[in-house]
Specification:
By secondary structure, this protein is mainly α. The chain has a two-stranded antiparallel ribbon. Strand 1 (26-28) and strand 2 form a beta hairpin. The longest helix is centred in the last third of the chain and has 21 residues, at 38-58. Helix content is 59%, strand content 9%. It contains two helices and two strands, in the order H-E-E-H.
Length: 69
């Protein structure tokens, strides 16, 4: 359940990042935002990717995560 929620949120942040890079509005859940802070979105993506890696390790699978800025 935790991993599914992290994956869902991560997918939403990837969509938000893509919309920001195209200069458009974006949605996260039921919120529609016009002005975006790309750095904040990327920090959230990094945090969620790290959380997903931690959850993966808890379940006995090994996964290497490399963040490229």
């Amino acid at each position: 359940m935790v991993m599914a929620n992290i994956r869902r949120r991560l997918a939403e942040y990837y969509l938000a990042e893509s919309a920001i890079l195209r200069g458009q509005e974006y949605e996260i859940g039921d919120r529609r935002l016009k002005r975006a802070d790309l750095a904040e979105i990327r920090r959230a993506i990094d945090d969620l990717e790290a959380a997903l890696a931690n959850e993966t390790l808890k379940h006995g699978r090994v996964k290497r995560v490399i963040f490229i800025d």
